Amino acid sequence: MIETRGLRKSFRSRAGRETKTxxxxxxxxxxxxxxxxxxxxxxxxxxxxxxxxxxxxxxxPDGGQATIAGADLLKDPGEVRRRxxxxxxxxxxxxxxxxREELVLQARMYGIGKAEAHRRAxxxxxxxxxxxxxxxxxxxxxxxxxxxxxxxLGIIHEPKIVFLDEPTTGLDPQSRAHMWDExxxxxxxxxxxxxxxxxxxxxxxxxxxxxxxxxxxxVAEGTPTDLKREISGDVVQVGLDVTATGEAEKLxxxxxxxxxxxLLDEGGLRLFVDEGATAIPRILRRIDAAGLDLKSxxxxxxxxxxxxxxKTGRSLRES
Amino acid sequence: xxxxxDTWLIFQRQLHLLLxxxxxxxxxxxxPVMYLLLFAPLLKPAxxxxxxxxxxxxxxxxxxxxxxxxxxxxxxxxxxxxxxxxVIERSRVTPVSRLALLLGRSLRDVVSLMxxxxxxxxxxxLFDLRVFIGxxxxxxxxxxxxxxxxxxxxxxxxxxxxxxxxxAPLMNTVAQPVLLLSGILLPLAFAPGxxxxxxxxxxxxWAVDGTRALFNGDIGNDRVWQGxxxxxxxxxxxxxxxxxxxxxxxx
Lengths: 319, 251
Prior knowledge:
- Chain B: It is a multi-pass membrane protein.
- Chain B: Keywords: Antibiotic resistance, Cell membrane, Membrane, Transmembrane, Transmembrane helix, Transport.
- Chain B: This is Transport permease protein.
- The structure holds 2 protein chains of 2 kinds.
- In chain A, 37% of the residues lie in helices and 29% in strands.
- Chain A is of the alpha/beta class.
- Chain A is elongated.
- Chain A has 2 domains: 2-93 and 141-224, Rossmann fold (3-Layer(aba) Sandwich); 232-301, Alpha-Beta Plaits, CATH 3.30.70.920.
- By secondary structure, chain B is mainly α.
């Protein structure tokens, strides 16, 4: 449904007298099959939104190729526009308009006739449980309601694929869960959904496949399960005082069963080991022998957060 | 065909939103009416006009041109609010015509200006201003072209600067010399030679002269067709340039 090869974009930014070229996206190859929820992950500034805006025809790529829903992005952006929907991160509704007016206008901007536009707006309002607010101004809507109108705007013309830029950012947990259901419903209707997010739990729960982007490049791609399996073994998290952390690092860094070790900002260590059950007693013995004060010890299977950490060298939360 | 349909679509939407809050039409009329009531009475003695009606024939056309220039130039603020709300980006991912995104908005501005111009003309009639209807319609055409140009330019600049903080001083800086060099408040016939020379390069000064000639019933005056031609060309150029800003990437 989406196929890109070597998609590139750089921006010139001026700081004082110097002009600097920032390579926002440095050659992205993506293959998104039809009917999937595809998650696009990365820290802020990784180039996610730039890639998305290129795919949505909002900015012109500097180079590379892309085919979206069968249309060539560089040669025929007009045709791409007809086949895709796009929901921006920062909102897209006008305070003084009503939800219904916005939906009708959007349908008509896609060339749909007046009567059909009204029918579709009514259907969308029903499907997104917005019917009772349909004729109120958008400024009176809650964050979740407004976001639902915006998603409805993005799919009013029944596109084959819809791009959602951080669809749940800023929503409360309940609206967020509600939004996940809506997104799954889009997939059930046969739509391909391409979402960006920086919530790893969201990517894990919602997406069929994900790609991780960092510094303008893709650093990983696959199903959440595959990506987690790639990091073989278990993760043992050892809680220690910040003062004791350095010493513990020296103790454990050389141990042959520790594949990799990371320091935690709040004090303590994260150890990547082959098998947690045999590693934990050995870790405990070393810490006990050194007389260090252990605060906690946890064993868990690798999460997407660990995948992210391994692939980009930092945790998504700190970036 | 698609252009006409899309333009109508955007125009309807913008007009609908304007009518939902019609107070702005009257805010727009308030200032010129104040000029009409509180400033124009000074003109008969100041200009040495034989009657009050003669003074209005000079002042009202200038006032209307002033309204068209300023009314248009400050439309960009509304567009910046739309940019911020994401409405423009939402339009740009659809196949809607880019020229229509501009024209629909600018034509709404022209209609709102014409409403104000009619109200002011009617008020001036109470003060014994008399104009032939044909001349008046041609004068309105001039005003419509001015408003089309200034509003298009304002939208184009708004898309470039993307912030009210930059747009306000920019528009004021442009508008002030344009205003003073067009003989809007007082005819440039009173100006010293050098000032008249500079004003010749101001297209709005030709437009003001042309509009005054029309209000004076002097439709054969060269300034009429010259003013209309100059403004029509500039309006076309302004629309072309601003529509390109809509088509280009907007962050």
